Amino acid sequence: MTPTHDDVAGVHTLGRWPADRARLHPERVAVVDRGVELTYGELARRANLLASALLRAGYRGGDRVATLVGNSADHVVTFFACARAGLVLVPLSWRLTPVELADQLLRSDPAVLLVEEETRTLARTALARTGARVPTAYLGEDGVERTVPAPWHGAGEPAPSRPGGPVADDDPLLMVFTSGSSARPKAAVLTHASCYWTNLSLSRTLELDESDVVLSVMPQFHVGGWNVQPLLAWWTGATVVLERSFDPGRVLRLVAEHGVTTMMGVPTHYARLADHPRFADADFGSLRGAVVGGAPMPAPLLRIYHSRGVALTQGYGLTEAGPNVLCVPPREAMDRVGWAGVPYPHVDVRLADAVTGEVLEGPATGELMVRGPGMFAGYFRDEDATRAIWRDGWLATGDVATRDASGYLRIVDRLRNIFISGGENVAPAEVEAVLQTHPAVEDAVVVGVPDERWGERGVALVVRRPGVVTDETELVEHCRDRLASFKVPSAVHLVHELPYLSVGKVAREHALRAALAAEGLEVR
């Protein structure tokens, strides 16, 4: 069964994009993956082949296709095949431990898992922990479209021959796990329409066209690996150069070799580039702009890039918003260092009192609320969490922002206590829960402290159980065995007690001051 335009009924569905571009310029390069080029004609053909193979095998509309792969042409083919067939792509992080991955596999309940050689052992170990029967395809040199296994529907349950109907704008397309204030990451569901509107608003700021070459280094298990530049590039007919990991020397070489015109990274990426020995002599003639996300860009680093003629667009967002919410246009970047910016087109924001919910007008400080057609559809199988984040049609970001008289916003605090290390969100509650599984730990709190390289890093304060012996090294190793590396505390300090509020909650501001003092950092 080959999907046709009748099967892709929604005008805002993304499965149309490769075929639309292929009709105009089939020979134009869509993807460069480790030196191998994939044209728009080939992308459209391969995506359609995979969509057809998935439908013939019996996968039904709404089924989840989990992936455990790096940035690759096969992953792009899989994304657009899912979009054509009405399936949902669930890109899982290869940085997770088997314990974490097993939890996400159980909660995402995929109909099939696609892995590659580099992640085969991780996948097998995680699947063994779940006890679930998930058909698994191991990608090889023949292409992902030739490795589709039959689905497992359970005893006596027939496999359907096609999905439930034509793909609609509001059908789910992408499911991304995101760190929240809870101990377990939640799966945010983005629809075709939300991805369409996110990229439409982004196009009003980035203004990509088919002559652009985008360097994509953000992992595709993050929403930014799709909805910040790459999808917009494939919509407009540009070329995307994929990188599987960030290596500053290789990035500098790729910019020159491919004539890269724009890229996206976190401040840590740009700092590592600027520190590279070849940075001063690097050819940036083609690089007209770049996007910064994850955290504010430090002023000295911003000046370095502006002196090289690279206009930077600072942005703020969250997965649940697609992710794009605010941006600082390049022309104002030097005057707005540390600011998150103004809303993207098609995005509305407001500030609300974090206690009363009262809407705040004019210059004010309050919780940032967001709405627009690019917002997510909800958390997968978690109605309580979905209801909690929506308030009267507005998405509550959990971030406190201040707004000046001109409408610019600055993020000043996080209600949900998340800190950002090297562009990765870390939920302290998740790390604390792991620490508290150690038999020597009675209580623990984790906070983020400033770090020149990573932006922030985790520091844990731990109360030891009476009569039980442990040390900082043992507790760090305990975390390392159970958490992705970016979540592991950089330091653990044993303390007699944690600071608590009268209501029984940890006084995190006091804990932060204690952690800063223990690390020899300036107490804020």
Helix and strand arrangement:
Blueprint: H1 17-24, E1 29-33, E2 36-39, H2 40-57, E3 64-68, H3 73-85, E4 88-91, H4 98-108, E5 112-115, H5 120-130, E6 136-138, E7 172-178, E8 186-191, H6 192-206, E9 213-216, H7 224-227, H8 230-236, E10 239-242, H9 248-258, E11 262-265, H10 267-275, E12 289-292, H11 299-307, E13 311-317, E14 324-328, E15 342-343, E16 348-352, E17 359-360, E18 364-371, E19 378-379, H12 383-389, E20 390-391, E21 394-403, E22 409-414, E23 419-421, E24 424-426, H13 428-435, E25 441-451, E26 455-464, H14 472-480, E27 491-495, H15 508-518
Parallel strand pairs: 1-10, 3-4, 3-5, 5-6, 9-10, 9-11, 11-12, 12-13, 26-27
Antiparallel strand pairs: 1-2, 7-8, 8-19, 13-14, 14-15, 16-17, 16-18, 18-21, 20-21, 21-22, 23-24, 25-26
Report on this model:
- The chain has 524 residues and is of the alpha/beta class.
- The protein folds into three domains: 42-190, Rossmann fold; 246-414, Rossmann fold (3-Layer(aba) Sandwich); 419-518, GMP Synthetase, Chain A, domain 3 (2-Layer Sandwich), CATH 3.30.300.
- Helices cover 29% and strands 26% of the residues.
- The chain has 15 helices and 27 strands.
- A nine-stranded mixed β-sheet has the order 2-1-10-9-11-12-13-14-15, sandwiched between helices. Strands 16, 17, 18, 20, 21 and 22 form a six-stranded antiparallel β-sheet that branches. The protein has a four-stranded parallel β-sheet with strand order 4-3-5-6, covered by helices on one side.
- Helix 1 packs antiparallel against helix 2 (40-57), helix 2 crosses helix 3 (73-85) and helix 4 (98-108) crosses helix 5.
- The longest helix has 18 residues, at 40-57.
- InterPro entries: AMP-bd_C, AMP-bd_C_sf, AMP-dep_synth/lig_dom, ANL_N_sf, ATP-dep_AMP-bd_enzyme.
- Residues 20-380 form the AMP-dependent synthetase/ligase domain.
